[in-house]
């Protein structure tokens, strides 16, 4: 089975401190629902950001959808992020002046997809996370949990090859966390994309089929 993401012997340090990553190696395949766990500050967000081409590794190899990220141009990275990657950020990164619907469809419009197709997909996703009634509301009026659900829909709008999620249920109650994980599982299983989810919430691991532990800068696969 071909890999969507290959990370090999990746090192990353910030300043002159202890390395955050010290030879991190793992891969993500189509259909993987992979959870990345580890102590706070262990580098989980760094791994996601390097894997998505948002941060460069100091050394090592990172290949995403067949593209070597270390030598990729800005335009290539931009196309990857628009077309192949869905990213759920810890801090949402929503555009406060736009409505729920406008935030969700923005990646599709930037990728040049027809607006009517984007709207159809948007409505399906909002329905799945029980936010259809707030499609025309400003995101600034939503609760943090609702904003997180909007961010989740935005990450899924372009049917990405891989989904990166950084503590995606951190602002959700148990019911909405279950809604999100159920939606993510259905999308991964139906489309054959992959997912890499960083979390502190060990209760979510039941939704995965792989678990990676990050400790002392290295990645180890756990029995699932």
What does this structure look like?
The structure is a single chain. The protein is an alpha/beta fold and 224 residues long. The chain has a single domain, classed as Rossmann fold (3-Layer(aba) Sandwich). It contains six helices and ten strands. The strands form two sheets. A six-stranded mixed beta sheet has the order 6-7-8-3-9-10. A four-stranded antiparallel beta sheet has the order 2-1-4-5, covered by helices on one side. Helix 3 (100-110) packs across helix 4 and helix 3 (100-110) packs parallel to helix 5. The chain is globular and about 45 Å long. The two termini are 19 Å apart. The relative contact order is 0.21. The model has no long low-confidence stretch (mean pLDDT 93).
List the helices and strands and how they pair.
Elements: E1 5-12, E2 21-28, E3 33-37, H1 44-51, E4 59-64, E5 67-68, H2 74-83, E6 85-88, H3 100-110, H4 115-128, H5 144-156, E7 162-166, H6 174-191, E8 194-198, E9 210-215, E10 218-222
Parallel strand pairs: 3-8, 3-9, 6-7, 7-8
Antiparallel strand pairs: 1-2, 1-4, 4-5, 9-10
Helix pairs in contact: 3-4, 3-5
Question: Can you give the helix content as a percent range?
Answer: 25-40%
Mind telling me the C-alpha Rg?
Answer: 17 Å
Given helix and strand content, the structural type is: alpha/beta
Give the distance, in angstroms, between the N- and C-terminal Cα atoms: 19 Å
Q: What is the β-strand count?
A: 10
